[in-house]
Amino acid sequence: MKLVLYGLTITLVLYLFICLLMYLFQRNFMYYPKVNRYGTSQNDLRDSKEVFIQSTDDILLRSWFYENNKNKTTILLFHGNAGDLDNRIYKLNAFKNLNVNYLIISWRGYSGNKGKPTEHGLYDDARAAIQWLENRGIKKNSIVLYGESLGTGVAIEVAQREKFAGIILESPYTSIEDLAKKYYPFLPVRLLLKDKYQSNLKIKNLISPVLVMHGELDNVVPFSMGKKIYENIPSKKYSYFSKFDTHMMQFNETLVAELRSFLKQTN
Fold it and tell me: N or C: which end of the chain has fewer CB within 10 A?
């Protein structure tokens, strides 16, 4: 009996130690500013301006701004949890072909920016980018928020009860808590998690038109989450659900055509 109790005690101590480690270092498992999952492509940056946007905590966000025509729609891109600006060039090239303006920001802690990424820090960064555009005379009703993976939670947060031209959600999740439960079912996720990105609760507050894009073969964020997000959107909504895309959706002619169609709806 003593051996059994001893074994249970050791097991409990190890489990609590694992929980402590996960609590202390959890953001290392969520944000990957130095991990490249995308690859790079060529972009003529002479058409774009490198700008630095002031956020909170005295942080400047390295960003790229492309303005073809001040009166056109501007896409504001919130990237995912890995990589940097260079890894999204293929999307920027597509935006140019769609004849829109764009602003892509890099989060705090990414692309050489100061600071460390946190949920509320990213929200501050996103709001700073919106304010920067508004200071240039670009109103919210001319801005399309584009959230990519982790960035979908940021887009949903800042879009609540605000009338933007549109919102694009690529590979969205219901919440980080739901994702964490999928990857760490043995942990008390609700108690440990710091950054929750509860899109499932905030989605009901959207009033702008929304396009949800998700690959059915997504092995990072389950397709079921994207479908649930789509089903719970109360505003005008559109979907592009691809049978063959994984988490990194292919910017092929079909997807770009869906973007073009959605952007026409927002004008």
Answer: N
